[in-house]
Write a structure and sequence with these properties.
5% strand; Arc Repressor Mutant, subunit A; 2 domains; mainly alpha; 188 residues; single chain
Length: 188
């Protein structure tokens, strides 16, 4: 990759290595949480660049198609992790990374995690309700298995409800919590 491919014209080998490691790491982290690797790499490219980047810049830098970059940028925008910015003298769209990581966490928790948790709870509750409705017509052997299912599903529901309470607590405290204070906390 030539220097012109690097946003900001990176020429120092150590800067390139750190940039590559960060993009790779953020790509893997995005995949771990169920997002595309490109989303993590896009966020990393924007985060590590001191100036906004255009769609063309990002596509060239990451060596991805403009369509792929555009699709993933829209998702990142909807998540609140990147935003479109105006650059004087240009008609192209430019993007920059959200650097308030607490805001990003709150957006992800409230938009995706709470929604997914609620869906999982609905599936569990529907399953238990379906079993309970049909249990009176079951044979003794199937009734025992259905009761076993209900017990196990109820155990999972308790865990999911607990997770829901924890996430709601975090979301309710979001505006009151100063994340910078965590830097002083030592976990041993």
């Amino acid at each position: 990759m030539s220097d012109r491919d690097w946003p900001g014209g990176l020429s120092e080998e150590n800067l390139k290595a750190v940039n590559d490691n960060m993009l790779d790491g953020l790509g893997k982290l995005a995949e771990y949480f169920g997002y595309s690797k490109v989303m993590g790499q896009l966020y990393g490219a924007l985060l590590l660049n001191p100036t906004p980047l255009s769609l063309d810049d990002l596509a060239a830098f990451l060596r991805k198609s403009k369509a792929n970059v555009s699709t993933n940028l829209r998702i990142l925008e909807n998540m609140g992790t990147v935003r479109e910015v105006w650059v004087r003298g240009s008609r192209r769209k430019f993007y920059t990374a959200e650097t308030d990581f607490w805001r990003i966490l709150i957006n992800v928790l409230s938009n995706r995690e709470m929604r997914d948790l609620e869906r999982a709870l609905q599936v569990l509750e529907q399953s238990v309700e379906q079993l309970r409705r049909t249990m009176p017509q079951m044979s003794e052997e199937n009734l025992k298995l259905a009761q076993f299912y209900v017990e196990r599903i109820d155990s999972i529901r308790v865990l999911f409800r607990f997770a829901q309470v924890i996430l709601n607590s975090i979301l309710q405290q979001a505006g009151k919590f100063d994340v910078s204070e965590v830097q002083r906390v030592r976990i041993e």
